[in-house]
Amino acid sequence: MTKRTTARRLLTLALLAALAAPALAHQGHSHGGTATVQIQGQDYKFVTPASVSTGWTTFEFGNTGKEAHHMQLVRLPSGMTQASFLAGLKENEGATLARVEMVGGVGMLLPGQSQRITVNLAEPGTYIALCFVPDAAGVPHLALGMAQTFQVTRAAGTAQAQPPKADLQVKLVDYGFELPGGVTITEGPQVWEVLNNGPEGHEMLIFRLAPGKTMDDVAAYLQKPGGPMPVIPMGGAQAVTKGHTSYAHLNLTPGDYLLLCAVPSPTHQGAPHAALGMIRPFKVVAKTAAR
Question: Which positions carry the signal peptide feature in this UniProt record (predicted)?
């Protein structure tokens, strides 16, 4: 994108620098009775079903390519086509994303990784799966063909699915992450409820600090990038519009992590929300240490 910020590009290029890292184990948890939809991310396309039913749906996104990918889902408003949407992104990413309904997705994953996300496809219509991650030359994957439409149709006579039970709720606000006070995050499979209280669209990307690195190293790298990134991508929940909730199915190991939102702000000249303060460290402890 012509107006993509340097900070956002650096954070996504971190995935490319970490390709030699071993893939994480499959991330999963109880689906709460929702339908499961498989989507593959290849270089450079998505493999999606042609049609999905409305309601709470669990998407399992697997990166089967050789580059890092994520999966952002959006619903287009009436009268907007995929071509006009992509043209708008090229002209002004933040303003264009503010015009569509962002319904979530899976955060950035390395090749071989997979993660589930449960989202509510409340309205029928045309949806698009997108990958904003840039290649080594800085070209976003969606500009290379990684944008795939599918239809969401209202299914009659089916039982209404319910979202999964959450172990933790994270509130997204302008511009920060609100976690329950005094909570201890322990290792293992878990479901995070991610609620956007807005008013802007937000995402919850998860990175683990590399061994021996601190938040000071992260801040220094963003000010003056060079050498290996001090963080390792761990997926997370892609952007949702205000009022939307998604459920990220995670499998966390002990260590130091950070939450980050890189969505460009339409009210701050496209600055990524992380540059406006939307970055927060947290720790995952072993179950024995939590007792």
Answer: 1-25
How far is 6 from 231, CA to CA, in rounded Å? 17
Omega into 140 within 30° of 0, i.e. cis?
no
Q: Tell me the average confidence (pLDDT) per consecutive run of 10 residues in the chain, 291 residues long.
A: 41 39 35 80 94 95 94 95 93 87 94 95 95 91 95 78 93 95 93 95 94 90 81 92 95 95 88 90 88 61
Q: Where are the beta strands (DSSP E) in the chain?
A: 35-42, 45-47, 51-53, 55-63, 69-75, 101-109, 114-121, 125-130, 147-153, 168-173, 176-178, 185-186, 188-198, 202-209, 231-240, 245-252, 255-260, 279-285
Q: pTM (2 decimals)?
A: 0.85
Tell me: domain 6-154+162-285, CATH 2.40.160.40, correct?
no
- How far apart (Å, rounded) are the C-alpha atoms in residues 280 and 273? 12
Rounded CA-CA distance 159/151 in Å is: 20
Going from N- to C-terminal start, the domains of the chain cover 6-154+162-285
Alpha-carbon span 47 to 244, nearest angstrom: 25
Give the model's pLDDT for residue 260. 93
